[in-house]
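seq as requested:
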Amino acid sequence: METLFQGRKTVLISIAVFFLTQFQTLQTLAAESKPFFRNVRAQSMGGAAVATVNDESALFLNPAGLGKLRGGYVALVNPEIETNYETVSAIGANYSAVTAFLNPQAMHDLALRNPDKPMHMKLQILPAFVTTNFGFGLLANYTSTAEYTTNTGLVQLDYKNDIGLVLGYCFRLLEGRLKIGISGKILNRVEVSQTVTAGSTGLTLNNIAREGTGIGWDLGVIMTAPWAWLPTLAIVAHDVGNTKFSMGNGYFYPTGNKPNDQYQSVDVGISVFPYDGKTTRTSFTVEWRDAQNPESQDIYRRIHTGLEVNFSDFIYLRAGMNQRYYTAGLEMSFDRQQLQLATYGEEIGTYPSYREDRRFIFMYGFRF
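struct tokens:
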């Protein structure tokens, strides 16, 4: 018993040393990075997920969450479609314009016709197999935003296409009260982040995209106290040591230019799970995003809170605060199918000029 205790003590000390090292070595990073991965459930709960995730999205949000799965399943189909009010209004009945998010020139033209309004579209799928403590999946993510600012005469274009594989595993210690998860991913990224003059032509991915392949790692810890309401502390280091897309010369757009690094970020979350009854369960969580970056002037960018009420594993009601804006969501979960809706506000302004982009997400899932 003493040997076992010493071994567990060593593990805990090692975890603490790791995270303290990361905080100390990365404090100088001033830029606040965007999350690598989002999904509909997390965004409906204010973007907070690292202490509550318990499905295939744990592969990216917190691999320690794989230890919370109660069994195995295949997420065969789970497309998420995301946009905002301005884009829906701009497209109107012209449904063919939906494909604009795949074309920088089309996004430029759409923004030009809708000045001073952010255009935003996203499509994401994550087919995966997960079971208790283990999972792997395939990610495909296409995200495109554009905005024409009349007082500058410029159009900001941002496009990201990630395609890759992810593999995760969780170690359960102390009778499951301590979970340590690790996941590795290999991704090919196509990226555009460019400001162009309004009216520009010939904007193609062949001309302006940067492409590269990278290997990245996430490490997460979930610690749950054996008390009522199961108070939980979770810490996750995403893209440990930075994910660099320096492999290969580009499979689709060999321009020779590499995407920007996906910088490491450390997220900390706490949660409680009040037991409401035989058919109702509640979870409440608070998350501090990008904890190793103390230089951000706007602390609200890093605050995320979420609430979920589960009725008989059939109806889920969700709400929260993403940065300084409200979020809400609804899920209907059938035997093998899921329907999820969410809305959240994203901060797109710069300190101290705050600006909300109200977004909407729809997801249909099929599992077996």
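The two ends are 41 Å apart (CA to CA).
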